[in-house]
Design brief:
heterodimer; A: 378 residues; Elongation Factor Tu (Ef-tu), domain 3; 2 domains; seven-stranded mixed β-sheet; six-stranded antiparallel beta barrel; B: OB fold (Dihydrolipoamide Acetyltransferase, E2P)
Chain lengths: 378, 123
């Protein structure tokens, strides 16, 4: 037998790199795969068990492959607004906001988080795209703005309804982690070590993202996993959790061929920028905001148990109307789900469609996302 | 009843001219949680090496190649409701289908259990 649709990332560098917790994952039985140029754990005890554990307790994800960047210098604010459709006037300190790096045609180069720190901006970008992002930003930003790649920092995500209980026991700060609400952050100490913590994540659950010095990553990952609520979770469950949460994954559901409007991410174009424009691709995107995009990212719920995967074609009768960008079995719902881009005419919830899987037509229905309700702490 | 193995991690038990086909315990461990099995219908003719069945796990869809050619006589109906049997009983209750061999010499290129164990140990 053979894998025909492997779960991995397109980008493969010449030599696979290791992350600060590489040995830590291996010691815990993590099955390591290449992802975004790094060796990363795809699973420990099994994807379904890890998925369900995160939904009912708390899971620790190593996301140190992601790019942590810091931008500072004179004119940094207009420089950021020139490359992102963000309104920094409304961005309060220590409150991460989702944004999109766009090309001149309005295509999505990456999705990212932007946080205002005291003297600059902290960005978290995707692992597979970070080198391109850095090159793109260095080219776009004026000389007065300094971009620092925080390569000596590790990044962990602690996700799940009991994440707050585990973290509150070990993180000390001017405010308590229990006082943070969704998309708020602050500086804390864990075992005496400085940590930037925000109440955010990519599973649809309450949880936190924790940036720490790479040299302390093993110590802090150990301490977090010593909390009875917490188990380490691999990339496999990270993918199934974010899919259930309706959250797009760059390189799959987002690409330069998609725009914020077709991707249903218009909330990332901040209000002032929707009228003023002035960001890459604004002309096309403002046009799409007014008139709609030709295709639309939608959620699909499949009948039966057979899953459809990325690349499968979507049909409305005999007419091909779209293609899957993500798909798999939902452990929480116990049926297959998918994301697809379909023609705008077939994007309304309730529309009955079919997905071609190896010549077999699987019935599916457009549903609103998230598939599993978000449980953020607002 | 002799059991044969393929390099692609299928097993086949042969009783007279009828074989019972499944995937090995090693294979199910690599695939992880199995959520669906696409089985051939009784009466379907397959050639040796055909992707006669597909096993879906949370991770991926994987072809299961026919270890021998012949006519499918029965699919394991229990897998429809309980595909996880392929995880829990890969080499017994989680069998996939039965096949009437059209050419017993198809078995000549397959491994016996000792050879398969040695093969997996080297992976």
């Amino acid at each position: 037998m053979s894998d025909v649709v492997p779960l991995d990332d397109g980008a493969e560098p010449i030599e696979t790199m290791t992350l600060p917790l590489d040995q830590w994952h291996r010691e815990r039985g993590g099955r390591m795969v290449e992802f975004a140029g790094y060796w990363m754990p795809v699973q420990y005890e099994g994807i379904v068990a890890e998925h369900l554990w995160t939904r009912e307790s708390a899971g620790l994800f190593d996301v140190s492959h992601m790019g942590q960047l810091y931008l500072t210098g004179e004119g940094v604010e207009p420089a950021i607004e020139a490359v992102l459709p963000i309104d920094l006037a409304t961005l309060k300190s220590y409150a991460p906001r989702y944004s999109l790096l766009l090309d001149e045609n309005g295509g999505i180069l990456d999705d990212l988080m932007v946080t205002r720190w005291n003297t600059g901006f902290y960005l978290v970008v995707n692992g597979a795209t970070k080198w391109d992002d850095i090159a793109h930003l260095r080219e776009s930003l004026p000389d007065e703005v300094t971009l620092t790649h925080l390569e000596d920092s590790a990044l962990l995500a602690l996700q799940g309804p009991k994440a707050v209980d585990a973290l509150a026991r070990i993180a000390v700060g001017d405010v308590a982690v229990t006082d943070l609400t969704f998309m708020k952050g602050g500086t804390f100490k864990i075992a005496g070590i400085d940590a930037w913590i925000s109440r955010s994540g990519y599973t649809g659950e309450d949880g936190f993202e924790i940036s720490i010095p790479a040299e302390n990553a093993v110590q802090i990952a150990d301490l977090i996993c010593q909390q009875p609520e917490v188990k380490p979770i691999g990339l496999g469950a990270r993918d199934s959790l974010r899919l259930e949460a309706g959250l797009p994954l760059y390189g799959h559901d987002l690409s330069p061929e998609t725009t914020p409007v077709s991707a249903d991410l218009t909330f990332a174009i901040n209000k002032r920028r929707k009228t003023e424009g002035g960001f890459p691709g604004a002309e096309r995107i403002l046009g799409e905001l007014a008139n709609g995009a030709a295709t639309r990212r939608v959620g699909l719920a499949l009948e039966g148990r057979q899953a459809a995967r990325e690349g499968a074609e979507v049909y409305f009768g005999d007419q091909k109307v779209g293609v899957l960008t993500s798909g798999g079995f939902s452990p929480s719902l116990n049926h297959p789900i998918a994301m697809a881009y379909v023609d705008a005419a077939q994007a309304a919830p309730g529309t009955a469609l079919e997905i071609d899987v190896r010549g077999k037509r699987l019935p599916a229905r457009v549903v609103s996302m998230p598939f599993v309700p978000h449980r953020y702490h607002r | 009843m002799p059991r044969y193995f393929t390099k692609d991690h299928e097993w086949i038990d042969v009783d007279g001219d009828v074989g019972t086909v499944g995937i090995t315990d090693y294979a199910q461990g690599q695939l992880g949680d199995i959520t669906y099995v696409d089985l051939p219908a009784a009466g379907q003719w397959v050639k040796q090496g055909d992707a006669a069945s597909v096993v879906d796990s949370v991770k991926a869809a994987s072809d299961v190649y026919a270890p021998v050619g012949g006519e499918v006589t029965e699919a394991n109906a229990a897998l429809e409701g309980e595909p996880e049997l392929v995880n829990t009983q890969a080499e017994s209750g989680g069998w996939l289908y039965r096949i009437k061999l059209s050419d017993p010499t198809d078995l000549d290129g397959l491994m016996d259990e000792a050879a398969y164990k040695a093969y997996v140990a080297d992976l």
